[in-house]
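Give me structure tokens for this 332-residue protein.
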Amino acid sequence: MKPGLSRFDYFLNQLQPILATAARQKNPALWLYRNDARTPLFMLEGLSKLYAGLHNGKRFTKIKAHFKLLEDGIGAIDYYDMMAKDLVNNKKIPASVINYLQAQSREKIQSLNETLLENDWLPPGNKRLIKIKKKLEEADWLHEREEVNEIYDFYGETIYEIVSFVQSTQYQFNNIETEVHELRRKLRWLSIYPQALRGAIQLQKNPAAPKHLAKYLTKEIVESPFNKMPAGGELTWMLYLEENHFYALSWMIAELGNLKDQGLHIIAVKEALQQTSSITDENALVKTYQLLGNQQIDIPQILTRASNICKQYFKEQNLENLVIGTSPKKVI
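Here you go.
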């Protein structure tokens, strides 16, 4: 079996029993959300996104759309559910706001249940997975060395697109969702691909790595299990990423995630206020800050912080120095 197909099989074999168990529940969507179906879906979506850039673009783009539909559905549930849980103990937050967020979570659960049914994801039919597996078996899989070289090119193109995206903002962000959150999404894929590729990407430390990287190498980042690469097994060719630059990437993803989460709390409360009362957009924002308290920084401050850390990170050209290159597997 070609390495590419075996990677899809690995995560499909994780997803399939989760779907099978969900099918026996009264509320399959809720069960999927509570039992981490999102992780294998993320990996499958990432593989589809990557392989669409390598070969059989139309085929993998369609496959990606199926996985993304489920992952987005679980993500929507997670958004409203976590917002409600984060805010429920804040005595300043009106019950109407919490009730709205909980109601939205239930609505997203129902929507995902409909998606599961309409697209035949669940046993006993299970036609969606059967169709995807057939499409995967018919793909024009590359030999290992050729594939790794294509992944190298894909990383280069992706990094160029991200740098261009940030430069287009002139390091001045104006929107949480379309700029801060979107940039984090783009960066995060670079850290998801190594996990999804099951060892085809490894880290290699450059002894002469720039000293400015030290500020990114926190204990939390360096020791994170998400920054440990899967073993390469029987693979003979690898793409190597510079270790400290990969840690710096992980730090950026984490920092942007923290800022994004603070911004989304503001957006969620503001949405709830406007949906549950007659209040103007401006007054809803003022009320939101009052409810969240003094510890909550406002959206302009979030955007400024995100702009500042991105300006420094990208001015240092850290992303451009992430990829070392391809070579035969190094035996340690």
